[in-house]
Design a protein that fits this description.
By secondary structure, this protein is of the alpha+beta class. The protein is built from 7 helices and 14 strands.
């Protein structure tokens, strides 16, 4: 058990990674079965895998850090009059990319982030099908774990030509098309879930423009990975994407960047 007064991110690292991997195992058990798909109030899909992962992570974090509150996509959103006073809390997406899970393409993740004063200071993104885990931790940097190998990761130093753009597999609109037209020569790689952030974080893509709806639990863990890998996650006004600052939990549009050799935000000046 880690007290909130004596919080040490290094002490949390291995237990939280283990929680994410364990949650991934519960997801894979459902993935291998004939599962049912329900619809939530916003018409997004919900499966038993989402719920099993949520229960596993929430119970584990409550035991590990009982003084730190938890927000999970499948656990309900506390009223802002309560959560707005939280200095530190866990922010979880038990299964990010449920559409990818349902389509069985493997591009879904488990996301666990620790938020402090509106910023993600620690994030774990686990990819169950690939048995790969990305970690971003303040004071430690970012790393990829796979087959018992830990590899430090960094964003690319310079954009390639053509520019490597990663975008949503399930969501694409005219605003992204306008960005791509302004960009010029590019290679577009469609991908699901928070893997898009991680692709930038490990230098395999140069930019990820998100010009559509996301929620804070979709982005926090992967933002920690990107930022600790030397990248940026910027709202379109140039400020870092922040958390728990308003009544709803929807993010504004944002851009995930590696190399700063393009003015990515200027390329969005003609957005709709």
């Amino acid at each position: 058990m880690v007290s909130i007064e004596d919080l040490n991110l290094e002490e949390l690292l291995e237990p939280v990674i283990a929680l994410a991997i364990g949650a991934g195992d519960t997801i894979l058990a459902v993935y291998a079965s004939d599962f049912d798909v329900e619809s939530k109030s916003d018409q997004s899909p919900l499966t038993q895998a989402d719920l099993a992962s949520h229960r596993h992570i929430a119970a584990g974090l409550a035991a590990l850090t009982p003084a730190i509150p938890i927000i999970s996509e499948e656990g309900g959103l506390p009223d802002f009059s309560v959560r707005g006073h939280w200095q530190r809390y866990w922010l979880i997406d038990p299964l990010d990319g449920t559409k990818e899970f349902v389509s069985r393409n493997g591009e879904f993740t488990v996301n666990i982030a620790l938020i402090e004063n509106g910023r993600p200071i620690f994030g774990v993104v686990h990819v169950p099908v690939q048995q790969r885990t990305y970690v971003g931790c303040t004071g430690r940097g970012s790393e990829r774990r796979e087959n018992s190998t830990v590899t430090p990761i960094r964003v690319a130093v310079q954009s390639q030509q053509p520019v490597r753009v990663v975008g949503s597999r399930s969501h694409r609109g005219s605003s992204l098309d306008a960005f791509l037209q302004n960009l010029g020569d590019y290679d577009m790689v469609p991908m699901g879930s928070s893997l898009k952030f991680c692709t930038v974080a490990e230098g395999k893509a140069d930019v990820y423009p998100r010009l559509g709806p996301t929620s804070e639990w979709d982005t926090a863990a992967a933002q920690a990975v990107v930022e600790q890998a030397g990248g940026l996650v910027l709202e379109l006004d140039g400020k870092p994407l922040s958390y728990n600052r308003k009544q709803d939990i929807l993010n504004p549009w944002f851009v995930v960047t590696g190399p700063q050799d393009h003015d990515w935000l200027a390329l969005l000046a003609d957005r709709e």
